[in-house]
Design a protein that fits this description.
Blueprint lengths: L33 E8 L21 H19 L3 E9 L7 H14 L7 E6 L6 H10 L3 E7 L3 H7 L5 H14 L4 E7 L6 H12 L5 E6 L7 H7 L8 H17 L3 E4 L2 E3 L6 H7 L4 E4 L4 E4 L10 E5 L3 H11 L3 E6 L2 H12 L6 E2 H7 L5 H5 L3 H8 L3 E3 L3 E4 L1 H4 L2 H17 L23 E3 L2
Parallel strand pairs: 1-2, 1-9, 2-3, 3-4, 4-5, 5-6
Antiparallel strand pairs: 6-8, 7-8, 10-11, 11-12, 12-16, 13-15, 14-15
Helix pairs in contact: 1-2, 1-10, 2-3, 3-5, 6-8, 11-16
């Protein structure tokens, strides 16, 4: 994959056949009339040793057919969602820089013809250095891309080989230089840490070197050994040593310090920006906004208003590209599974995602999703919260609920305790009446969480 990120009929579209950058400290949660849009390009030159994303090595790829299906599903899901504006578009994968600029331009044109796509909307492309030569990057810019996310991952050729990356350090540096020239202030780079046998000081030197070359956005990703990957098997078999968790924790802490001293704001657990170069698209995820997933295996979260729906749904598209294309041609989209989110499930997502950011969850933002149970109601009398506050890890005040800088580093531990507190508060709240919130959550009156799936 180009980076460590990725997110995603019948007689009627709702049936199932056979997931501009923020300029202020808080942006209102996108309402039911706007959304972000993610496009998944499932193909790669080869499979990296650590990656378990939905990706395929193409054999005789018919890009025109894939392009037509991406356009068709984009149009179908946009109409189904009923959104009037797309705030951002993200081409992820896989390695979307392997797609032709014409495919990117055609998808963007389909979006603009179906709904409003502002001229200054953020449009990001994940790029791999081996498929991002200068002329190609310029062509993507001409197609409508205005932001790049470059999967550098390491500035050590031995580590790149370990990860199964197809580029070298010199290729990565050339790509960064060209990207900076074409997309000043709009280029993000990824750096991984916590690799087998990786040492703290050499990794910090990589980060310092990257700082001298990069633009205004850096993502630091901790390697996760995923079952089914080559790297997982090598560690299990003893061919490679297990990553050292203490060394990884030190890399993360020291890396945060280095970036803070360089003027970067840690606006999310893994993401750092200066000069307000936050990712608008990812910010939508973390603020609990709607997003539409297009392409094989893409995830989405939106209310299917165009089909008369009132509840927000978690949706996933068919994984395998050939099957997905057949379903798109037959039904207009390849949605394989959709689950209506209950109000509690939506609140759990708002809590888990919002606390990943440095601003956390404001009172106003929380009340947008749950107007009858405030943050004070849920957490104000909690001994757990008081303990976390006394440890300097969590803040609950007039602004809202958020982790401290120290707390962001141990969010997983904090979140488990807060989710349990939310569930208990929800269980003990006054009996609700059936309603649909403005955010598109189904209430918990009776068993209002209905599910559709095709296994």
């Amino acid at each position: 994959c180009a980076s460590r990120r990725s997110c995603v009929g019948g007689p009627g579209q709702g049936q199932i056949h056979g997931q501009a950058r923020p300029r202020t400290e808080e942006r209102p949660a996108p309402g039911s009339r706007s959304a972000a849009l993610y496009v998944h390009w499932p193909y790669c030159e080869k499979r990296c040793s650590y990656c378990n994303f939905n990706k395929y090595i193409p054999r005789g790829l018919d890009e025109d057919a894939m392009q037509r299906c991406l356009v068709k599903e984009t149009t179908t899901l946009l109409k189904l969602s009923g959104v009037q504006r797309i705030d951002s578009v993200f081409f992820g994968g896989g390695t979307p820089s392997l797609a032709s600029p014409h495919t990117v331009a055609t998808v963007l044109e389909a979006i603009a013809q179906t709904t409003h796509l502002p001229a200054k909307a953020e449009v990001t492309l994940e790029a791999n250095p081996t498929s991002s030569q200068a002329s190609r990057l310029a062509a993507f810019q001409g197609a409508g891309i205005n932001r790049l996310s470059i999967g550098v991952q390491s500035l050590d050729d031995t580590e790149l080989q370990l990860l199964g990356r197809t580029h070298s350090v010199s290729e990565a540096l050339r790509t960064l230089e060209e990207a900076w020239r074409l997309f000043p202030g709009r280029t993000s780079v990824d750096l991984m840490f916590g690799l087998p046998a990786q040492q703290v000081e050499p990794w910090l030197r990589q980060l310092q070197e990257l700082l001298s070359l990069c633009d205004d956005h850096i993502s630091l990703y901790h390697l996760t050994l995923e079952r089914g990957t080559l790297l997982f098997a090598q560690v299990q078999q003893g061919t490679l040593p297990s990553p050292d968790p203490e060394a990884a924790a030190e890399m993360y802490q020291d890396g945060r310090e280095v970036l803070r001293e360089a003027g970067f704001r840690q606006y999310e657990v893994s993401n750092f920006a200066r000069n307000e170069a936050l990712s608008t698209h990812n910010w939508t995820y973390w603020q609990g906004g709607q997003y539409i997933g297009v392409g094989p295996g893409a995830h989405g979260r939106f209310v299917p208003q165009g089909d008369g729906g009132s509840f927000r749904e978690a949706r996933i598209q068919t994984l395998e590209p050939d099957n997905w294309m057949k379903e798109v041609l037959m039904f207009g989209h390849g949605t394989r599974k959709r689950v209506s989110l209950s109000e509690l499930e939506l609140l759990e997502e708002v809590l888990a995602l919002g606390l990943r950011t440095d601003i956390g969850i404001t009172h106003q933002h929380w009340l947008y999703f749950e107007p009858h149970l405030s943050l004070w109601d849920v957490f104000g009398e909690s001994e757990e919260v008081r303990e976390l506050q006394s440890q300097g890890l969590l803040l609950l005040d007039h602004s809202g609920l958020r982790c401290s800088w120290e707390g962001l580093a141990v969010l997983d531990t904090i979140l488990l305790r807060l989710l349990l507190q939310l569930q208990n508060a929800w269980k003990n709240r006054p009996p609700p009446t059936f309603k649909v919130t403005e955010s598109g959550a189904a209430s918990q009156s009776g068993d209002s969480c209905f599910r559709y799936s095709l296994d």
